[in-house]
Amino acid sequence: MKGIYLHPLPLRIWHWANALLFMILLLTGIRLRILGIAALRPHDPFLLIHQYAGWAMAASSLFWFAYAMAEGHLQRHLLLKKGDIAGIRRQFTYYLVTIFRGEKDPFQPSAEEKYNPLQKIAYAAVMLIFVPVQTLSGLAGSHIGIVRKYVLLWDATGLFNAVHVIGAYLFLLYLIVHVYMSTLGPTVFSHTRAMITGYEEVKEVENDWMVGRGEQETTET
């Protein structure tokens, strides 16, 4: 077992700040649904906290995107590569079946391959699709004058509200899965500790599908 540095400090700070913002949005969002959106006033404290937290999360997401592009994080670690196709099937099988048999994870993170294929799909979908959609639907439901004007003009309040609520449920599902997956390291708190220290504990083995890809490339040459 060895520790490799996988999580730079800016991403670790962003991760925990985003986690806090998400919890604020989740709790205030539940409270707003209980109160009833139609009965809310523009200066309701829960609504204001929800909006401010939403804008803060939008800003943090822009920071993540700028950092990911500048540091090559998006291209190196989130975009699927040719060898990831076989990894998708193996990783699915591991999470659904073989993990309960005590078999080892077919993927081990490294400086070159930080996430397994399923993680790449999940993280890319969240940051590049779900967050922008959730932000725009939330903005459409806000009481910003010019935005509110056109939403009412198009009679789209119900549509944007439905999209925002569905998005909230998807984010809640993602959170549950994310927390569960964070317990699947060498110890229950290994991945959580890695997001504090930056160092991930990994076994010194090659990824199964990376080995296969390497053998295939050697044969072809």
Features:
9 helices, single chain, mainly alpha, 221 residues, 68% helix, 4% strand, two-stranded antiparallel ribbon
Mean pLDDT reading:
83
Radius of gyration: 21 Å
Beta-strand content: under 5%
Low-confidence stretches: 211-221
Gap between N and C termini:
33 Å
Topology readout:
Layout: E1 2-5, H1 9-35, H2 45-70, H3 73-78, H4 84-96, H5 117-140, H6 145-153, H7 157-181, H8 190-197, E2 199-202, H9 208-220
Antiparallel strand pairs: 1-2
Structure write-up:
The protein is mainly alpha-helical and 221 residues long. 68% of the residues lie in helices and 4% in strands. It contains nine helices and two strands, in the order βααααααααβα. It has a two-stranded antiparallel ribbon with strand order 1-2. The longest helix has 27 residues.
Task: Explain briefly what this protein structure is.
This protein has nine helices and two strands; from the N terminus they run βααααααααβα. With 221 residues, the protein is mainly alpha-helical. It has a two-stranded antiparallel sheet.
